Each structure stands twice: as structure tokens, then as C-alpha cells.
């Protein structure tokens, strides 16, 4: 287990979306440190799924930086994360 205070995830998304030039979400920035529990909540259409898909590398149209343990990665591997689309 990593020590508390170590940045696990550092997100700074300027814009992300499903089509070129059509940003669905803008100016999303947050940091998660080791030991923290985090929930992403909001109303329908607020951009929760788009944010998660951006972090997981499932969207091609992402302008920003997503760092895992200090390293910028495009397609991260999450051994303990499961994403299931409700479509």
C-alpha cells in the first residue's frame, strides 16, 4: 500500500468530448492521493461518464494532462477498476 500524501491520480482536462472541436467537458482538475476514497457525483448530463472515459483513455478527443503516480500516460492499466457502460 502506498503512503498517504502520494499523488496517485492528477487530472487536468482542459477539454474532452466525443467529436473533434466539440468539448463536452471543460476545465476539470483534481488530484487523488493514496488512501483517499473518492466519488464522482452530479446530475444527468454533467459529464461524469465523459470524465471517467477521459481518465481511462477511452476518448480520443482529450486536451489536457492525466498523470498516474506522476507519469503522463495515454492508456493506463487499472488492475482494480471495472468500467461498465449502461448503454
TrEMBL record:
Top-level taxon of the source organism: Bacteria
InterPro entries, A to Z: ABC_transporter-like_ATP-bd, ABC_Transporter_VariousFunc, P-loop_NTPase
Gene3D superfamilies (alphabetical): P-loop containing nucleotide triphosphate hydrolases
Keywords recorded for this protein, A-Z: ATP-binding, Nucleotide-binding, Transport
Domain ABC transporter residue range list: 26-71
Residue stretches spanning the membrane: none
SUPFAM superfamilies in the cross-refs: P-loop containing nucleoside triphosphate hydrolases
Entry's Gene Ontology molecular function annotations: ATP binding
Protein name: ATP-binding cassette domain-containing protein
